[in-house]
Amino acid sequence: MIDPLADPGATFAPLGEGAERAKLPSLAAPHARRTAVAGLVSHLHRDHADAGALAGALSADAFVHEPLGPGGADVENLGLAQANLELERAKLKRRAVVPWERLEVAPFTITALPAVDGLGDSLFHGYWWRMARRHGPFDVVFAPINGAVVNFPHLQPPSPLAAAMEPEQAAPRGHQTPPSNAGPARLGFRASISRPHARPRVKRNAPSPIEAMTCFRPKARERRAPG
Q1: Taking Cα atoms as reference points, which of 45, 52, 68, 193 lies closest to residue 121?
Q2: Alpha helix (H) ranges present in the chain?
Q3: Is the four-CA dihedral 167, 172, 174, 177 of positive or negative sign?
Q4: pTM of the model
Q5: Contact 14, 1 (CB under 8 A)
Q6: 151 near 192, Cβ under 8 Å?
Q7: CA distance 142 to 173
Q8: Alpha-carbon distance 67 to 83, whole Å?
Q9: Contact criterion met (CB below 8 Å) for 41 and 33
């Protein structure tokens, strides 16, 4: 069970009355009912770590595997507080893992891969090539593509940049870690407490990142015969 979500409305509960204006995604119910051998949580944002969904899917002896906490003051980790509290109340078995850590959870081998979180989802970062070299090729890659721009009271001044990858960035990710299949992990599920900043639009005639990488690839040096 990976990043389950059964109650998307709870994600916006901290907004109070503002939660009623949130547009919620439609969900597919998981097939597993107390039979899943492990819960894999990419990060402790409420929409990726739904304690109720995990409790309903995991077998009695299964663990929730989650990233090691970032440390720091409570105010720095407000985005993790809700999911963390709900997981504690659910009394689920939890295990913190660090990047590159490898686990054997029969019949699976699980490896925690590094990521850089922009308080939305994964940002484009420089670990893709190392991930592909160590563990590729991947059968399936799910990448965030909604490019959410967030504005939280405890993170001021807000950034006008996307806090998660957009399609133009997710496409090279599939190119660098070539999978048999690629799909979006997030489609337009925006979490912003106040009005998001406008994002600069990609010009229509601008090359895609993959095209740009191809254009700027160093050319082989010409070899000339002596004399």
Answers
A1: 45
A2: 51-57, 78-90, 128-135, 167-176, 209-215
A3: negative
A4: 0.73
A5: no
A6: yes
A7: 10
A8: 13
A9: no
Torsion of CA 17, 18, 21, 22, to 10 degrees: -120
Is the bond leading into 137 cis (omega within 30 degrees of zero)?
yes
Structure tokens given for 173: 């990710």
Residue 49 contacts residue 41 (beta carbons within 8 Å): yes
What are the structure tokens assigned to 61, written together?
A: 């002896």
Residue where the block lists tokens 């659910």: 90
pLDDT band at 178 (very low <50, low <70, confident <90, very high): low
- The single-letter code of the amino acid at 104 is E
- Residues 87 and 64 sit within 8 Å (Cβ to Cβ): yes
The 10s digit of each residue's pLDDT in 193-227 is 333 333 444 433 444 433 333 333 334 444 444 44
What is d(CA 113, CA 98) in angstroms, rounded to the nearest whole number? 8
Domain coordinates of the chain in residue numbers?
1-112, 113-218
Q: Is 186 left (phi over 0), alpha (psi -120 to 50) or beta?
A: beta
How far apart (Å, rounded) are the C-alpha atoms in residues 81 and 13?
13
Query: Considering Cα of 5, then 24, then 90, then 86, what sign does the dihedral take?
Result: positive
- Summarised one tens digit per residue, pLDDT across range 67-124 is 998 888 888 888 899 999 999 999 999 999 999 999 999 899 999 999 888 776 888 8
